[in-house]
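help with this record:
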Amino acid sequence: MNRNEIKLQAINKRNQINILEKEIEELNKQNLLLSDEDQWFEEKIEASTFRKNRKKVTEEHLIGRVHWKEYFIDEDDPDNKVEIDRSKIVRVDGEWRI
């Protein structure tokens, strides 16, 4: 095998990797949209207020969040399991942020 054949084979392998990475990204998005007892997706309008040029500005955006619960054991009381609600923004105005 000569140098050009090796380079061409490397390029082909890189292209295959890129295709697989895109497929994995799409599968991850589908997974985030599923809801079950472990995690759930919710999309709603949320308002945020901030200052811009000394004025208060409020903007509304369609925010997509994935929610889940995490459980921790209280170090002082090992029988006490503490439940914490978690969420992560994954879409803003329909655009993915992952």
